[in-house]
Amino acid sequence: MKTNISIRYNERTHEGAIASRTNAEQQLRRSVLSCMLWEDSFYEDGVSVADRIASLVAEVEPVKVAALAVEAREKMKLRHVPLWIVRSMARLPRHKALVADTLATVIQRPDELSEFVALYWKDGKQPLSGQVKKGLARAFQKFSVYSLAKYNQDGAVKLRDVLFLCHAKPKDEEQAAIFQQLVDGTLPTPDTWEVALSGGADKRETWEKMLSENTLGGLALLRNLRNMAQAGVNEQLVFAGLDKMKVERILPFRFISAAKVVPQWESQIEVVMLKCLAGRPKLPGKTVLLIDVSGSMEAAISAKSDLLRVDAATGLAILARELCEEVAIFSFSNSLIRIPARHGFALRDAITTSQPHSGTHLGAAVKGVNAAEKYDRLIVITDEQSADSVPNPTGRGYVINVASYKNGVGYGAYTHIDGWSEAVFDFIGEVEVE
To answer: Of the four listed, 23, 119, 172, 395, which is most buried by Cβ atoms within 10 Å?
Structure first.
């Protein structure tokens, strides 16, 4: 048999373009940083993505895998996929020495303790490894009586079960008493809106009390606007709550999601969204934003979410519109369309209604932008499933990938960024200073 033959690289995107050649670390990053674990997406089912992550963990250096798990939790605010990465690390001799430290870092809510054990037992109960026990025990020490009580919920694995399994030692007498309350089932009932409403409290009165006392966090407020509207909460209290909420590090797509469910309050939500973007440093020079509005971008980011991939993309576009000194914005699907110079939700509407959501002709779009615009940087926001080959940018090029598909096209001459976060623009600024 002849073996001295060249092998053509023939990996392709789901739309048919030849994909960029990537190494295992790049493949792992793109599979992780936009991943809602077990959630089916437009082209791939959730099980295949989870299996790919587990297999790629084995191919990447342990230190890099551990750092990616922490990045996914702390920068991208993902909860389940970092736990899955650590579960995969615990199976591997090369990686298991880093399990305790990584697990203790990525567990940031008490319910993630029991969620991790459920993942560990996904294929059947088995003893926890020593490193896993150490990580869980250290994580347990981080939580107050309030947070343990808030997340002490019924499930296949309970918090008291995890406590018994990992033999967590309290850091002082006060925590020893808290752990005993957890074991005895006597943790004090936390004063939260969930508890108040589940206990039969009047919904309108409960929401109005919390709004008046300003006890709701920013995300909790945004996520419950629909519930407030349905309960008939006084609108002026809602608007006052929005005006007072802390907006640091809340991304535009959160506001887009909120405005979808209470469109009657969109103008007030927009004011708060734009306030959260004010006063931040801008990227110098001219930026071209190229936004993917193809059919696959219409997929929801998770089964329980109203948010679509295109909402994440338009949220980043709103952010970029405010953080770039000079900007030209285009959408692409089958065509390349220039978007009017708008801000906020008007920009979202202009992007999403600019053309039919069909194919993913990214190559033709970049070619058109290169011919029409002289720019310092091109930022493409996409799921990378191009139907045609993508030319190099004429300035700096960045591809922000908002999906977790196996293959993509945004490498080589492009700086590739996975996931959506306000940190992507900080990263671009840092790259260009170096």
So the answer is: 119
Q: How far apart are the first and last CA of the chain?
A: 51
28 three-state secondary structure: helix
Cα 390 to chain centroid, rounded? 26
Residue 327, SS3 per DSSP = strand
Specify the pairing of strand 336-339 against strand 324-332: antiparallel
Helix (H, G, I), strand (E, B) or coil at 152: coil
- Cα-Cα-Cα-Cα dihedral sign, residues 380, 382, 385, 388: negative
Q: Which helix (H) or strand (E) holds 145?
A: helix 145-150
Q: What is the DSSP letter of 366?
A: H
Q: With contact defined as beta carbons under 8 Å apart, do 314 and 342 qualify?
A: no
Mean of the per-residue pLDDT values of the chain: 86
- φ/ψ (deg, to 5) at 328: -120, 135
How many helices (H) and strands (E) the chain has is answered by 21, 6
Q: Which residues of 294-328 are buried (b: 16+ CB within 10 A; e: fewer)?
A: bbbbebbbeeeeebbbbbbbbbbbbbbbbbbeebb
356-371 confidence digits (pLDDT tens) = 999 999 999 999 999 9
Which H or E element spans position 56?
helix 46-57
- Which region among 229-233, 339-343, 426-430 has the lowest average model confidence (pLDDT)? 426-430
pLDDT value at 245 more than 70: yes
